[in-house]
């Protein structure tokens, strides 16, 4: 078996995260590639949450629905995941769950709660379960012991020893079960994986921002964006940055503009509803030509919508937000590596072109995690700031549209940031010729931005019959289908920068059929392609139920369209 899908399911507060953390860290330490994603309800306790952990002999970058092993922590999980269960799915659960198991499925009774109580505390159940699952894939028991010891070392020697014992109990149970039921999940290990790091999307955005020179973070809590602020807050003292929770999103965005004005590099992290409140600030940044970086983690709307689910429905919001016309840059990372790299790039683009830069992620991306080899550290941050002379003109008319940007106290000159239309010095003006020239100057930046637009990722047959066009976090799943059906003439064109749009006309015009793949109800990026490149994409595969696009979903949709 190349890849094994384990799903943990239960109510919030049952300790799923503990099992998940122990298991995934130990699996990586044992030489397995891991990929994990989760779904959770919008409540502090109760409901049903699940985590899907893919274990593989090679890197995994896409979501597969099929469950190989289901571990329900509570009643209702089996029914909740019913559509993901197949004849060969194994269910490992307590005896009281028997009546919920559909006929034809194998339910292996595991009395984890009893074993935990025998060890002296029901809290040991999560560690026992980690050992059980770890043993099923024949992983290195020493790796599990190492992870457990590190996890519980702060609890004292006795508690650490008890948890190590609990993990070993689980491992022993796996050997008994595998022998009794005659099954085995042999997955090839790769020792080099042990040197990898495990990182999620939120951590990648946070670390990428630091790599780009971020030293000021402003936010108002809103899922799924808050974790980025939390990650940075945890590193604030060590990295010498300011992280501030403001009274609302308007204050947060204005504070970031102020940070950039003073010579800092600010990040705002928010979601759709919060970004809507920031539209006036975005327009202020456009007029004052202030750099600003906004991380917009998408979730289904309108309004509160599905606050803990995923979507790609805020493209138009980000593209058209703010009154008046002004240029902007919009990146949409496709994976953790790009979440890191494009977060770094966002700060340089904002500084260099003095425009708002919006980083579009989504719940699926910020919550997913897997093992990666390395993330390149940027040792030098280029700051595009000039020393002001006595005749300094903040908004000097230049052919490129990019005026020299100074900061208070650096040089003899005086700097004025103005939200009104202004002259070259920054003083308010209503003079016809000058107001026209200033608008033209700002929009000239768009041509410079187009010169640095990221080329989309093309993958598949050059002479493809079907070209799937995608953006953001859908890349891994779309690529998996191209790999599987390349002989059907399948290829993909994936955009990680959604504005300005790279002129990909050559790719688009060579395909017999183009299909847009998006997680919104209208096909917002397909419409943008039509507007910007004059290429109409009529065929669309759209998913908008708050769940990420899976390999099975995309395969069925392509089959229904006669592609497969």
TrEMBL record:
<dbReference type="InterPro" id="IPR019752">
    <property type="entry name" value="Pyrv/ketoisovalerate_OxRed_cat"/>
</dbReference>
<protein>
    <submittedName>
        <fullName>2-oxoacid:acceptor oxidoreductase subunit alpha</fullName>
    </submittedName>
</protein>
<dbReference type="Pfam" id="PF01558">
    <property type="entry name" value="POR"/>
</dbReference>
<dbReference type="InterPro" id="IPR002880">
    <property type="entry name" value="Pyrv_Fd/Flavodoxin_OxRdtase_N"/>
</dbReference>
<dbReference type="InterPro" id="IPR050722">
    <property type="entry name" value="Pyruvate:ferred/Flavod_OxRd"/>
</dbReference>
<keyword id="KW-0560">Oxidoreductase</keyword>
<dbReference type="InterPro" id="IPR009014">
    <property type="entry name" value="Transketo_C/PFOR_II"/>
</dbReference>
<dbReference type="GO" id="GO:0006979">
    <property type="term" value="P:response to oxidative stress"/>
</dbReference>
<feature type="domain" description="Pyruvate/ketoisovalerate oxidoreductase catalytic">
    <location>
        <begin position="12"/>
        <end position="172"/>
    </location>
</feature>
<dbReference type="InterPro" id="IPR002869">
    <property type="entry name" value="Pyrv_flavodox_OxRed_cen"/>
</dbReference>
<dbReference type="Pfam" id="PF01855">
    <property type="entry name" value="POR_N"/>
</dbReference>
<dbReference type="InterPro" id="IPR022367">
    <property type="entry name" value="2-oxoacid/accept_OxRdtase_asu"/>
</dbReference>
<dbReference type="GO" id="GO:0016903">
    <property type="term" value="F:oxidoreductase activity, acting on the aldehyde or oxo group of donors"/>
</dbReference>
<feature type="domain" description="Pyruvate flavodoxin/ferredoxin oxidoreductase pyrimidine binding">
    <location>
        <begin position="209"/>
        <end position="431"/>
    </location>
</feature>
<dbReference type="InterPro" id="IPR029061">
    <property type="entry name" value="THDP-binding"/>
</dbReference>
